Amino acid sequence: YEYGQVINELRPCKKILEKTKLEKQFIISDFDHNLFTKNIKAVDVSTNTRKNVAKLFLQYKMDENDRWIYLTGVANTGRSFLATIYTIDLAKYNKGPICFINAHQRFKELQDTSITDKSRFQYLLDSYSNCPILVIDDFGSELRNDFIRNTLLQILIKRSGKKLFTVFTSDYTISEIISLYSVSKASSIEANRIGKILTEECIKEFNLGNIGVYR
């Protein structure tokens, strides 16, 4: 209201600006973008396991911990939801760049682009290997062959060496992941290397339960 008149102004929506700012923290965000508007209080922390996972994310946010997190349990226990909301919360504190990838989709993309678009392949490989935060969602659902196994191992070795925060959500335990990748005697050696890195870097395996509660 100026000089006795109502003046119309067109301004960007504050909520949209906040969402856009968060999205820019992500190189890849394979989750429902409606979750950008969710509050961290939406996460279920009703069990000790969930409270401990929440504590680890908080410690990373406060620069007090960089150990990896491995979330397992049956489907629909909220593994992906938990990882997504807490990762978005880290983005609010400018912890990016972040890669939140679906294992099935993105490892297939790596294999395909290694043949069709080598520059894209190298960009993705470097991003997954070097970004401050990598979340591999639905780990174990990916196509498992020599190329993907070796590429995964390469990513994990680099991230382990640089102490970069890494989170996994999976239907499978670490020992089951080793078995899935051990399709031959030769591949079992590399599979065990993957398992060793996961065991050493992850504080423990957090099992969110045996009953699906989310649909």
What does this structure look like?
- It is a single chain.
- This protein is of the alpha/beta class and 215 residues long.
- 50% of the residues lie in helices and 15% in strands.
- The chain has eight helices and six strands; from the N terminus they run αβαβαβααβαβααβ.
- It has helices spanning 14-23, 48-61, 79-92, 103-116, 118-130, 146-162, 174-181, 185-201, and strands at residues 26-29, 68-72, 98-102, 133-139, 165-170, 202-207.
- A six-stranded parallel beta sheet has the order 1-3-4-5-2-6, sandwiched between helices.
- Helix 6 links the parallel strand 4 (133-139) and strand 5.
- The chain is globular and about 85 Å long.
- The relative contact order is 0.16.
Structural class: alpha/beta
Report the C-alpha radius of gyration, rounded.
Answer: 19 Å
How large a portion of the residues is in β-strands, by DSSP E?
15-25%
Low-confidence stretches: none
The main sheet orders its strands as: 1-3-4-5-2-6
What's the β-strand tally?
A: 6
Largest sheet: 6 strands, parallel
* Oligomeric state of the chains in view: single chain
Average residue-wise pLDDT: 91
Q: Give the topology string: H per helix, E per strand.
A: HEHEHEHHEHEHHE
Helix content: 40-55%
Q: How many distinct helices?
A: 8
Shape: globular
Question: What's the N-to-C terminus distance?
Answer: 49 Å
